[in-house]
Amino acid sequence: MNANVGKADRIFRFVVGVVIVAAGIYSQSWWGAVGIIPLFTAAIRWCPLYAPFKISTAKSES
Question: Is 26 helix (H, G, I), strand (E, B) or coil?
Answer without folding.
Answer: helix
